[in-house]
C-alpha cells in the first residue's frame, strides 16, 4: 500500500424536505452521492496531477472513502487519502479545499475568488486552462449529484470539518448545471436548408 501523504476529511450534508425527517428517497439519494463522489474524484485528479479528466475512475494518487454516517443524520463523512502528486503541486488542506470550492462554485454558476496563493496563481495564468477544463469535465458528475435536489431534498452542502460549508448546491445550481450541459440530442448539421 502506498504511503499516505495527506488525509483530507470532508462532509456532505443533505437538507430540506425528506432530509428534515432524517431520510431521503433511496434512488435519488444514492445517485446524488454517486455523482458527488465522481465530482470530488475528478477535481482531486485535476488538483494532484494537473490533468483534468472526465471520468472519476481515472483518479490516480488518491483513494476516496465513505466513512460511516451518523445515526439519524443525513451528514455523510468522507476521507480522501492522497498518496502522490505531480512535482510542484502545493499539497495541503487549505489549497485542496480552495481548489474544490473554485471548481464547484464556477461549475454551478456562482462567483468565487480563490483564497490561496496557489489557486489564485492558477486562476490568473491565462496560459493555464486547468481550472476551465476541470470545470467542464465535472459538470456531468455534478448534474448527477444534484439529482435528489427538488425531489427529496432542497439542498446539499460540501463541508470542511471545523470550518463549515464550502459550497452549497440547491435548485438554482441545479438549473445552471442543466443549462450548461450540451444535450446529446443537439447536433451540428451541415448542408442546405430548403
Largest sheet: 5 strands, antiparallel
Order of helices and strands, N to C?
A: EHEEHHHEEH
Beta content: 15-25%
Number of strands: 5
Query: Radius of gyration from the CA trace?
Result: 17 Å
Q: Identify the strand order in the major beta sheet.
A: 2-3-1-4-5
Uncertain residue ranges:
none
Shape: globular
User: What is the averaged pLDDT score?
Assistant: 91
Can you tell me the number of structural domains?
A: 1
N-to-C span: 64 Å
Helical content (DSSP H or I, runs of 4+) = 25-40%
**Helix count from the secondary structure assignment:** 5
The assigned structural class equals: alpha+beta
Task: Describe the 3D structure.
- The protein is an alpha+beta fold and 194 residues long.
- The protein has one domain (6-180).
- The chain contains 5 helices and 5 strands.
- It has helices spanning 26-49, 93-107, 117-124, 130-145, 171-180, and strands spanning 6-15, 62-67, 75-82, 155-160, 164-169.
- The protein has a 5-stranded antiparallel beta sheet with strand order 2-3-1-4-5.
- Strand 4 and strand 5 (164-169) form a beta hairpin.
- The longest helix has 24 residues, at 26-49.
Outline the fold blueprint.
Layout: E1 6-15, H1 26-49, E2 62-67, E3 75-82, H2 93-107, H3 117-124, H4 130-145, E4 155-160, E5 164-169, H5 171-180
Antiparallel strand pairs: 1-3, 1-4, 2-3, 4-5
Helix pairs in contact: 1-2, 1-4, 2-4, 4-5
